[in-house]
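Hi V.,

You were right to ask for the full record rather than a summary. Here it is.
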Amino acid sequence: MEQHLPKFPLPQGYDTADHYLTDLVLAGANRLYKDTFSPGVTKRIKQELALIRSQKSADYFLVYWDLARFAKTNHILYDCTHGTTICGIVPYCLGITTIDPIQAGFLSECFMFSAKPQVFFTCQESRQQEVMDYLFSMFGEDHVSYMKTQTSDGRYEGFSTGRILMTPQPLKEYFTLTEYKGKLVPDKDAKEIYDAGFAIFDIGANSRLDKISKILSKDTMYRDLAQIPLEDEEVLDVLFHPKAKSQWCGDKRKEVYLPEIEEKTFEHLVDLTALMNQEDDTIIYTYIQYAQKRWTPIKRHPLVASYFNTTLGVWVYPEQTLRILEDICGLSGSEACLWFRHSSSQTEQADLLEQKARSNAQKRGLQESDINEIFEYRWFNRWKAWRHYNYLECLRNYQDAWLKKYYPDEYTQFV
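Predicted structure:
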């Protein structure tokens, strides 16, 4: 399907968006990784840039790079912590996201999982219009439009807050335009437009970011939530406390299980949250026994043991399966993702990939019981199982607990 992405204005010396994007990513990587610029970082960047080239979506990422740059320059607090974009090293090197995906344990394959890129940019509610106005001024009102919201019976109710359509040619060349409250908008809904290959840019607003901005303006050390250390013992004590239900939306199981852990770390918090989101109390109990050193973790086959080092030998995340499928079972990253997409429906393509993976694993020396365990985790298709989802859930709760501890009066006033 033909893509209709806006053409990002390139500086002198660049003839393609891919060329400019590559240079921006490499410059960001050199700044962020410095002495830790390993072959693994290089490989990951190359894989993601190749995907972006194949999707012809370089202009899409350049728009969000420019939005992030505009927000930083104008001291607008923002985040892009929804969806799988957070797993990509390219968005991180561009400054679109602020969490190092390698340090956080996010897989590039999760970023590459989607057939089309989708970034969710959220900024302070009080300053959302500034960001919108910047897009209109950058690309022109004949190329940029708000989108109408539509009721189930086809009536239009108004503009969709934070959803922007941007086109390479003037809007009138693609759509019949109608006037709505002084604005020209396409006479189609968002799904039709998206399915036709047009890019919809999500510019969300969050009042929480306004409140956090007010609090951080008082801090001389941390001006950005991404800089807050994640191993503050007093903050972790709050999150592991049995009365921390306000932090966890009243989840009774967290009130029961979290206090069991004596060594309170952010990693244990993420692991246990993931396990509780999967609703298997047996595995949770096993994890806690391992964490408390009451039980000895099971000894796994040497070929796969390293994939469980950070999770106490427990199979917690689908990312563990993806890595094993690639490194041990001989599937490419795209094949592993394809198996994940279709394994639950047991399509012929998924079955063929599973046969290939099983055969390669046997040749590598894995036992039948180890191989069967890999393919028993079809339920990992549930989005709440992924590490990045659970990491971000814990991160937001940790940040709120940190703000409440160090700025209790402001937190009560603003949040």
